[in-house]
Amino acid sequence: MNFSDLGLTKELLQAIERAKYESPYPIQNEAIPAILQQRDLLGLAPTGSGKTAAYILPILQRLLQKEAPKERFVPVLVLVPTRELAVQVAEVAENFSRFLPRKIKSMAVFGGVSINPQMMKLHGVEILIATPGRLIDLIGRNSIGISRIHTLVLDEADKVLNMGFREEVEHILELLPGKRQNILFSATMDSEVELLIQKLLKEPVRVQVEADNFTPELIDQKAYRVSPENKGPFLRILINSGDWKQILVFASSIRTADNVAAKLSKNGIDAVAFHGDKSQGARTEALAKFKSGKTRVLVATDLAARGIDIQFLPLVINYELPRSPKDYVHRIGRTGRAGAEGEAISLITPEELHHFKVIQKKMGKRVELLDSEDFEKTTT
Fold first, then answer.
1. What 8-state DSSP symbol labels residue 5?
2. Confidence grade of residue 47 (pLDDT, cut at 50, 70, 90)
3. Bridging pattern class, strands 205-208 and 368-371
4. Starting at the edge strand that comes first in sequence, how are the strands of the sheet with 368-371 ordered?
5. Rounded distance, CA 161 to CA 192, Å?
6. Other residues' Cβ atoms within 10 Å of the Cβ of residue 154
7. Among the listed ranges 148-157, 218-227, 245-254, 360-369, which one has the minimum average pLDDT value?
8. Are residues 273 and 249 in the same domain?
């Protein structure tokens, strides 16, 4: 199926082509027509499945048919759990909007930074992407109005609730108009998410991409057998063996992320740690430098990396394995996006071997396990 089969206008199709999107993902095939029909939608999909464009494209089409708001009442609200995801969604909206006949202003607002610059830029915003706490702060200062929202998107609803935003979300819902379109995306379903779905959605169209079976086709996966004491040195050899401009390294703890980044920097590899103990300003700066190519290696924990979305990220390295197969798929899904090829490499100690076999079984895909010593011989 092509984007032209989904009911999008000529202006949107041209924007999609100029943004270099080739063919729609499965979730886009199902979600875009439903959202264009102004149906409520429940999307069960992991990160990397193309869900952001699945709702941004039809929302842009609807906004194109209306005039830009002259007051501080936004027509579209996207609620997200993290600053990183807010920025990612805003970038997708901006990427398409710049090719449209009328520029549709989108903006990400989030906590951890000064509120005043955000307040000054809110005029004329048509798609507001917000974390719940900061949105409530802005509403309390009369800087934004949400009583005229016609489309509400709750993205990564499971993480919004898991991060303790349930009361904030309920407060925001009370301020919204009763008649609106509701779109909810979640990677998992638990009792809290189910309760929110029952409260929020009316006869929704259900779209699902199975997380366990979701492995981007264009990712070349491999693993290296390595001893615990040789993990750090082998990581450096691995990084120096190729000309990858950006490398995302995953560690399982904040302490390990800091140690790995420090060792890489000490050995002449430009690297920075990225985790929840960093200030918002430090995380913003680190991600900006990584995206622009000024920093070559970002060493991240799973929670901090939730919102990282780089369209042509060439390589992901699992310095340590995650706890669950779903997290493994989430990690490697950071590469191999938008039709581009990607590579994912895991460093496996003897203690991790059994867990790695479990991951492969759940994923339904065998990953070649190579000997790190053989690799070192070929690079020396």
1. G
2. low
3. unpaired
4. 271-274, 297-300, 247-250, 315-318, 342-348, 219-225, 368-371
5. 7
6. 26
7. 360-369
8. yes
- Whether 200 contacts 181, CB under 8 Å: no
Q: Are residues 28 and 126 in the same domain?
A: yes
> Of 202, 143, 148, 142, nearest to 175 (Cα)?
148
Domain match, 14 and 129 both: yes
Domain membership flag for residue 213? no
- Judge if 106 and 190 occupy the same domain: yes
Q: Where are the beta strands (DSSP E) in 141-282?
A: 151-154, 181-186, 205-208, 219-225, 247-250, 271-274
> Do 258 and 380 meet the contact criterion of CB atoms below 8 Å apart?
no
Of the listed ranges 144-153, 331-340, 356-365, the one predicted with least confidence = 331-340
Q: Which residue range is the domain that position 174 belongs to? A: 3-208
What is residue 279's predicted lDDT score, i.e. its pLDDT? 81
Do residue 234 and residue 190 come from a single domain? no
**227 and 202 within one domain:** no
Give the whole-angstrom CA distance, residue 139 versus residue 3: 37
Q: How many domains does one find in the chain?
A: 2
- How does residue 162 score in pLDDT terms, banded at 50, 70 and 90? confident
Give dist(CA 11, CA 31) in Å, integer.
19
pTM (predicted TM-score) = 0.67
Q: Single out the residue of 153, 319, 121 nearest to residue 239, CA to CA.
A: 319
For residue 285, pLDDT beyond 50: yes
